[in-house]
Amino acid sequence: MESYPGLQETRVIADNLKIVGRERSMNGTLIFLDDCDNEHYKFDIKLYSDPNDDGNFKLLPMGVPRMPMCDGLRTYYVQVVQPSLTYGVNTNLPHIPAEGLCPLPKDEYYLKNLLLDTDTWPNQIPRGLLKAKMTIFKDDIDVGAGALTEQSTYDVTNERFEHYPGLRETIFSLAEMKVIGRQRYINGTMKIGEDMASDQFKFQIELYSAPNGDDQFKLLPMGIARTAICEGLKTYFAQILQPSLIHGENTNFPYVPEEGLCPIPKGEYFMRNLLFDTSTWPNQIPRGLLKAKMLIFKNELNVGAGALVMRVEDSE
């Protein structure tokens, strides 16, 4: 655990939180000096990766953007953190009902022998060390932060593709993409029926989890919000997918330079014996089945989607 003071004053104090014992459980206190409401208080969460375990953390492109405190507690805390908490046993943090709680009362809150249940945690994460840093803002000024660093190792196996046509027309298609062979390679063709520029086209990614491996998928609270296509290509594709691609060898999809590529040219793009390099992939994910679904929109109308289902297991 790491604690950071505020820029001008510290209204949230986490310097007594520690990781202890063989089980690496979380113990200590978290102090809020003010009632935290939506009017004055916000928070964000940034994720950092250190795949080589050498102290050189790199900011990842996903996390939780700055948002009002009570809204964030209702949206993220309830699903990601609260399942690990038992009031009166391992914490005195108040239970937050489905309708939310506002303000979060000022108090000194304890955590005792807490191990986080990651079954509902979202997103792909890299191997090595992952740091999740939460910063609290009062009137948009940093008033304190804390970070949890943990080691994470897992294996990802491609399972299958799913194809979804557009509502009125299909411009983007993964219908010919398949997962084949003992190595579970990705093979097939991605079809883009028009040049895709940001003035008309957007995409979003939804993440679903089936921790029991039974296809009972539940939508996770994080993914990639609907984003202009070229901006998303420059920000996410270049970091998450492009490291796995070798133009002319396992794909003919165009290389995206640092300044971006716009529009994305229409065409048929092959994938041949592709296995993803997950060393730059962000965020906590549950074990079991994970479905990543990409949807393409033209003028805000769905024009095709595809999903890759992967199995995530602890490394031996």
Could you characterize the architecture of this molecule?
It is globular and about 60 Å long. It is mostly beta strands. It has helices at residues 69-80, 229-241, and strands at residues 2-4, 12-13, 18-20, 25-32, 41-50, 58-68, 107-114, 128-138, 141-152, 154-164, 172-173, 178-180, 185-192, 201-210, 218-219, 224-228, 267-274, 288-298, 301-314. It folds into 2 domains: 2-152, Distorted Sandwich (Ganglioside M2 Activator Protein, Chain: A); 154-314, Distorted Sandwich (Ganglioside M2 Activator Protein, Chain: A), CATH 2.70.220. The protein starts with a strand and ends with a strand. Strand 14 (201-210) and strand 15 (218-219) form a beta hairpin. It comes from Ceratitis capitata (Mediterranean fruit fly).
Brief sketch in words of this structure:
It contains 2 helices and 19 strands. Strands 10, 14, 15, 16, 18 and 19 form a 6-stranded antiparallel beta sheet that branches.
Fold-level CATH name of the largest domain: Ganglioside M2 Activator Protein, Chain: A
Low-confidence runs: none
CATH class of the largest domain: Mainly Beta
Q: Give the count of helical stretches.
A: 2
